[in-house]
User: Fold this.
Amino acid sequence: MSESPAISPTVTLLLSCEDRPGIAAAVTRFLFEQGTNIVHAEQHGDAEAGVFFQRVEVEFPGTQDDLVELRELFAPIAEEFDMKYSIRHSSDRPRVAILCSKQGHCIYDLLARWSLREMPGELALVASNHDTHREATERAGFSYHHLPVDPDNRPAQQQALSDLLTSNDIDLVVMARYMQILPGSIIDAFPSRVINIHHSFLPAFPGGKPYHQAHARGVKLIGVTGHYATAELDEGPIIDQDVVRVSHRQSADELVRRGRDLETVVLARAVKAHLENRVLVYGNKTVVFS
Assistant:
């Protein structure tokens, strides 16, 4: 049997700027002059906002010193076009913290995906206001932190969570059905780096038991949204969504089950898109490259 070809390391350039002629040409010319080989490239222009977006992935067998030099050489081009940009190596593994509560479907799905090495990041820890999922998390080989909430002193738990994220050098926070509102201090510390999942019935069916409310109204579609968390609850930039058709034949409990299935898939897709440097945020919208 022949061996599979080795996968070359790559560098991903992700950028946005005011749309004008010559941007793509300047970027591709620069990458050609550096001797890189483009393996994937996408771009998008938002005509209404007048913004240009681009993601370019190139083979990059160089050292970390070469990567530093690449960033330095690209800086004048970024300045010329007033770009917001990032240049990241495929070996970079962002440190991820997953927050969960009693519901287990999202956390169990993510634990399985990390155990199967599907996620291009390092799962540094799982934290919860309940001790429910400690055994499953530790059995999978990951660190679990129980941070109970005292109803009379919620800020103490929020500060403990903030300290935990900071001390572990976390890059991305994933709310896997974490049923606590994150304080503004944590949201501000992780701009476009907190991912949440919720049912897409908002604002039609806010509050408790949204699937039961939807069932009572006889809905024909149920949906799920994965988004970045902001100070405005459940209104952050959307990364991924999905829907499934339902009918009068399904009970409220069946809607809950089908909604859980969607939540696991959409949350995983949103997290993976972020870790693969495929998401650009502008305003309250995103461009998510394939």
Remarks:
- Residues 95-288 form a domain with the Rossmann fold fold (CATH 3.40.50.170).
- The chain has eight helices and 13 strands.
